[in-house]
Automatic annotation (TrEMBL):
Topology relative to the membrane: Multi-pass membrane protein
Keyword Transmembrane helix: yes
Pfam families in the cross-refs: NFD4_C (PF23262), Nodulin-like (PF06813)
Name of protein: Nodulin-like domain-containing protein
Residues spanning the signal sequence: 1-25
Subcellular location: Membrane
């Protein structure tokens, strides 16, 4: 039981790491000051944001380091990369250090790389200490990465609300301090024995309560963290946020109340994971049944399921009519080279030749990545609309709703017993708010429209970021998910460059050509007015519609594989 207690302490340490290492989300809080201090154009500022996102392309280096170094050493290497990258940028904004532009670019790249290394450490801790519930551990901890910007906003307001450069100092120091706090649990990792089924169910219930606590934390940050810029109030609120992050430490004590958990568990049934649908055992059964019975479904039939409870038995009914209707107009496009079963391993050489992968890539590229670029530009967007004072509020809105979106990605499997729907379909639903938000921003420059659009984009992006690993695992194989997911997220630095460059070119062009709303500050053009981002929002909206279309097509091509998997899973349970 001591080992069981220590594993929950490790989970809390992982939550802390994720909550305080999403430092790329507060870029917009200090980007305007960075632009003025360096005397650079909006295009050059965009390249700095690209450099931070480009760090994701070097995420593989953390895995290589883990082959030769202890986990805690890798964690501190990540902490010191961030300390160096953000710390020197803070000196730049304070006027103490005046490097050339390419050095600042490298510092942004180094800071972005540190985030990937932290993520790798967290993934390894979850997988190693929660082998039976690793998907629940991953979905919970990854979700907390979305509240980083809100936490840093509170921390900055509690020290000096008027200083934008303070965010860089906090980005440098807090992850290092968090690593020190997480060191003892990591060094005392227990040797865990395989858990009986009752213990696995008990742990699932604990995760259920932890998710409830996570929702309360998100609501607290959403409604209270942006309500005041007063230093005294911000300190109290920041203390409350820290308390909510420490509160899960009570879980080790709850673990010992086994009888209490058994009593409560009779009222809850937590079935499956909110992060990875294809579990290894279920996948093996699915493969065996697919091999034995190739006639379960033809390529022209989509299997739609619906639970029907009858006493103690459960049946699963299927229809062909909906499948036939959906394939009337574009049947060849939907059927050609589509996936027949979930979990089939795809090496990289095979992956890049699959139509489904590129539909998935486009959906991510035109969905979650656009949302990330939007968050990078929040500082200039608010400034151009005359709402610079609302920048921290917008950052908190994006951060909090991104957090809720990440938590919502776990919902489909919690309700799977009563309502089953392919995860690619949920992804299409989650992508829908993005074009709505951009067209809303195109049509109105009001404060309400800006806040509403930011919330919708954060919610959509958060869901996509959290669901992506599970979808990659389901469509292209769990054993290949590490390599395949790294291939997928190459769209982030590419999108950051393309979308950010589009926004920057439009911004600088309007600033030069417009005779109104332009302010010259230390030879730096500042564009004022709705026109600064009007066409950017319009084209981002059009691109996100294209991403939504790609995602819907992916759903139509893959839903028969999802339904087939669900039928095989249910059949195996009934046998």
């Amino acid at each position: 039981m001591a080992g069981q207690s220590r594993k929950w302490a490790i989970l809390v340490a992982t939550i802390w790491l994720q909550a305080f290492t999403g430092t790329n989300f507060d870029f917009s809080a200090y980007s305007s000051e960075m632009k003025v201090m360096l005397g650079i154009s909006q295009v050059q500022l965009n390249y700095l944001a690209v450099a931070s996102d480009l760090g994701k392309a070097f995420g593989w280096s953390s895995g290589l380091a883990l082959m030769y170094l202890p986990l805690w050493v890798v964690m501190f290497i990540a902490a010191f990369m961030g300390f160096l990258g953000y710390g020197l940028q803070w000196l730049v904004l304070r006027g103490i250090f005046s490097p050339p532009y390419f050095v600042v670019f490298f510092l942004c790249l180094l800071a972005g790389c540190s985030i990937c290394w932290f993520n790798t450490v967290c993934f390894v801790l979850c997988i190693k200490n929660f082998p039976a519930n690793r998907s629940l551990a991953l979905s919970l901890t990854v979700g907390f990465n979305g509240v980083s910007a809100a936490l840093y906003t509170l921390a900055a307001n509690s020290i000096d609300p008027s200083s934008d450069s303070l965010y860089l100092l906090l980005n440098a120091l807090i992850p290092l301090l968090t690593s020190l706090a997480a060191l003892i649990p990591i060094l005392r990792q227990p040797e865990l024995d395989p858990l009986p089924s009752e213990a696995i169910q008990r742990d699932s219930l604990i995760f259920f309560f932890l998710n409830i606590l996570a929702v309360l934390t998100g609501l607290y940050l959403l409604f209270l963290s942006s309500s005041t810029n007063e230093m005294s109030s911000a300190r109290i609120l920041f203390g409350g946020a820290i308390f909510l992050l420490i509160l899960p430490l009570c879980i080790p004590g709850v673990v010992y109340a086994r009888e209490w958990f058994k009593e409560i568990h009779t009222h809850f049934q937590i079935d499956g994971s909110g992060f990875i649908l294809v579990e290894d055992d279920d996948l093996e059964v699915h493969r065996e049944m697919s091999i034995r019975g190739g006639d379960y479904a033809s390529d022209t039939m989509t299997l739609l399921g619906n639970w029907k409870e009858k006493g103690d038995e459960s049946t699963y009914s299927f229809t062909e009519s909906t499948a036939a209707k959906s394939e009337v107009c574009c049947g060849p496009v939907i059927r050609k080279d589509r996936l027949l079963i979930l979990g089939e391993e795809h090496p990289a050489s095979v992956l890049v030749r699959r139509v489904d992968f590129w539909l998935y890539y486009i959906a991510y590229f035109c969905g979650g990545t656009i949302g990330l670029v939007y968050s990078n530009n929040l500082g200039q967007i608010a400034q151009s609309l005359g709402q610079s004072s609302s920048t921290t509020t917008l950052i908190t809105l994006y951060s909090s709703f991104s957090f809720f979106g990440r938590l919502l990605s776990a919902t489909p499997d919690y309700i799977r017993a009563k309502f089953y729907f392919a995860r690619t379909g949920w992804l299409a639903i989650a992508l829908t708010p993005t074009p709505i938000a951009f067209f809303l921003l195109t049509g109105s420059g009001s404060a309400l429209a800006l806040q509403t659009g930011t919330s919708l984009i954060g919610l959509s992006s958060g869901f996509i970021f959290a669901a992506a690993v599970s979808i990659t695992s389901e469509l292209f194989g769990p054993s290949s998910v590490g390599v395949n997911h790294n291939i997928l997220i190459t769209n982030i630095p590419i999108g950051s460059l393309v979308y950010g460059l589009l926004a920057a070119v439009v911004y600088d062009s309007d600033a030069v050509n417009s005779s109104q709303g332009i302010s010259m500050v230390t030879d730096t053009l500042i564009c004022m007015g709705r026109h600064c981002y009007f066409w950017t929002f319009f084209w981002w909206g059009c691109l996100s519609v294209f991403g939504l279309f790609s995602c819907v097509l992916l759903f139509l091509r893959t839903r028969h594989a999802y339904d087939r998997f669900e039928r095989d899973r249910i059949s195996s349970q009934l046998d």
